[in-house]
Design a protein that fits this description.
3-stranded antiparallel beta sheet; rod-shaped
């Protein structure tokens, strides 16, 4: 499991630079991700991800104006009408060898014919 959040990079909404920006996670059907702070473009993993079960996730994040210049005023609204930008993130899960082969004896011998 990844300990640090996934930074959403240059995802900046087209709003006034003086306005507080809020981010909202939508379309995360597997509930594998969360936004720890709605004021930062960081996506965090809620649980362990297994490539054998789901190799790719596509959560969508909305960004927009919180309503005024104070970051303390942001609330998670029930609608998305004031969100100006939407981005779908592609998260490719790397494979870890969690299915290690098991042998019943230390060495094996055979003949090639």
């Amino acid at each position: 499991m990844r300990d640090s959040p996934i930074l959403l990079g240059q995802f900046s909404p087209a709003i006034s630079p003086a306005a507080a920006v809020c981010y909202r996670l939508i379309d995360d059907g597997d509930q594998a991700f969360t936004l720890p702070d709605m004021h930062k473009p960081e996506l965090a993993v809620r649980r362990s991800l297994d490539r054998e079960l789901i190799p790719q996730y596509n959560p969508t994040v909305l960004a927009g104006n919180c309503g005024n210049n104070s970051k303390t005023s942001c609330q998670a609204p029930s609608n998305t009408t004031h969100y100006s930008n939407r981005v779908t993130i592609v998260v490719e899960v790397e494979d870890v060898n969690d299915c290690v082969p098991r042998f019943t004896q230390r060495s094996y011998f055979g003949k090639i014919m």
